[in-house]
Amino acid sequence: MVMSSYDVAIIGAGIVGCSAAWVLNRRGLRVAVLEKGRVGGEQSSRNAGFIRQQGRDLREIPMARRALALWRQISAEVATDIGFRDDGVLAPTSDAVQLEKMRRWAVLAAQAGLHSRVISREEVSAFVPRLIGDYEGGLFTADDAWAEPDLATEALADLVRARGVVVHERCVAKRIVTQGAHVSGIETEAGFIGAGRVIVTAGVWAADLLAPFRVSLPLNDLRVSLACTEPFDHGLTHPIWLPDVLARPRKDGGLTIGPGTDGPFDFDISPRGIRLAPRFVPALLKRPSGVRINLGRHFIDDPRRRSAYRGDDASRYDAIRVPEPEPTAAIIDRCVAALRRRFGYGAELRIARRWAGRIDVTPDALPVVDHLPQHPGIVLISGLSGHGFGAGPALGEMAAELAETGACSLPRADFSLDRFEKKYFLTAESVL
Ligand SMILES: Cc1cc2nc3c(=O)[nH]c(=O)nc-3n(C[C@H](O)[C@H](O)[C@H](O)COP(=O)(O)OP(=O)(O)OC[C@H]3O[C@@H](n4cnc5c(N)ncnc54)[C@H](O)[C@@H]3O)c2cc1C
User: Some GO term, biological process aspect, for this entry: which one (predicted)?
Assistant: First the structure.
């Protein structure tokens, strides 16, 4: 990369960073994206691929709706087929109380312009004929969407590159450089680059990058295990989200599978995790069986990896470029068992690959979309809490607007950074 000066530098080439670059480039700004590993190497290539509006915290709905519109544009503009489809995601339930919650949520969501509806048990059967068991009904949103995450992020990065954005891989951003309130650029492992504004879309690493600015960003990470099957005649035409398993039809004819609405996800204890744990108590109490708490190597590895940012020892960067968290075999086995039980699959369901990713979670499971208070030229998009693939393009657009004009066209008052200072305990409000 030619080390020079840009209007905006973005740290992190996940779906949010690439989306921000896409928007800024269309507005005629000179943009560089710095990525410590490879495009989409962390969450953005590892997720389940749901572009879901339904069941969200109502405060996220405007963002989810906008994201869908942008996904349609992205899928039309990129050069490859990213497996984007927007004809509905279904969450069936056999629990009458949960169905009632879904019904109440759908009424409120309708006021925000979302056309989710509760469907009857007969409609569930007609929609997913292979589903075995007695279901009370389900929540269905006809324009919820999905795409292949690894293809999508890569294709968007290729698109912005072709339009003149510099996407610099294997380039650790070490420090954001400021002079008084102003941003002057970023010190990277390849040298200094000048930029008057910086967007931080660094996933689970955001708090480390912002540590010198002493902001309160209570970001924990959860390890989520997923798998995909070999292609087989699974009979699913749409993604489905059940309490114990999710399944999404893949472009290659297989399914991506993983834990359902009830989890479980892994919380690997680290010193940082312990420090932040009290703030996550309300979330834990809401779904006590949804999180498995593990004490293991992460306790030592996590602080060691995170300290790699602070030094100048480039040999330590390889440990943080593209982390490969271990998937939990027991979770995948449970998902496979749930699929066999619920869909009657036999030996034809064969696992082709398992993987895991770490998601950046806030206590209220809402994102942070804000400037740093002392440095308005630093924009932070963080804490996407497992929703950021679907919402990614809208979050990227909000980041771009904040960086360019200091304001956003979508509401963001609930996504402010200072909410963590104003209130110690915050709770998530989603229905799924
Ligand atoms: C297993 C799993 C399943 C999920 N399923 C879904 C789903 O179905 N639907 C949904 O909407 N969301 C889902 N999510 C969440 C979603 O994937 C994320 O919210 C979203 O991808 C976050 O995008 P991002 O661009 O903010 O972060 P990331 O994709 O994590 O990208 C951040 C990037 O920043 C880079 N970086 C960090 N620090 C630096 C630095 N100092 N210098 C340079 N680069 C740096 C990293 O290398 C990384 O590539 C899931 C996540 C996981 C892990």
Answer: D-alanine catabolic process
Find the length of the chain.
432
Taking the whole predicted model, whether its pTM rises above 0.90 is answered as: yes
Residue 105 lies in a domain: yes
Ligand 1 atom nearest 309 alpha carbon: 41
Which residue has the CA at smallest separation from atom 53 of ligand 1? Answer: 357
Q: Is the CB of 55 under 6 A from ligand 1?
A: no
- Which atom of ligand 1 is the closest one to the Cα of 39? 49
Dist. CA 330 → ligand 1 center (Å): 24
Query: Would you say 202 and 11 are in contact if contact means Cβ atoms under 8 Å apart?
Result: yes
Which residue has tokens 């740093």? Answer: 372
Chain segment 378-407, per-residue pLDDT in tens: 999 999 999 999 999 999 999 999 999 999
Q: Is the CB of 43 under 6 A from ligand 1?
A: yes
pLDDT tens digits, 8-19? 999 999 999 999
For 236-288, the pLDDT digits (tens) are 999 999 999 999 999 999 999 999 999 999 999 999 999 999 999 888 888 87
> Which ligand 1 atom is nearest residue 40's CA?
49
Can you give the residue range of the structural domain that contains 251? 5-422
Q: Respond yes or no on whether the N-terminal peptide bond of residue 264 is cis (omega within 30° of 0).
A: yes
Residue 428 lies in a domain: no
3-class SS at 371?
A: strand
The whole-angstrom separation of Cα 201 and Cα 396 is 9
Q: Could you tell me if the CB of 160 is within 6 A of ligand 1?
A: no
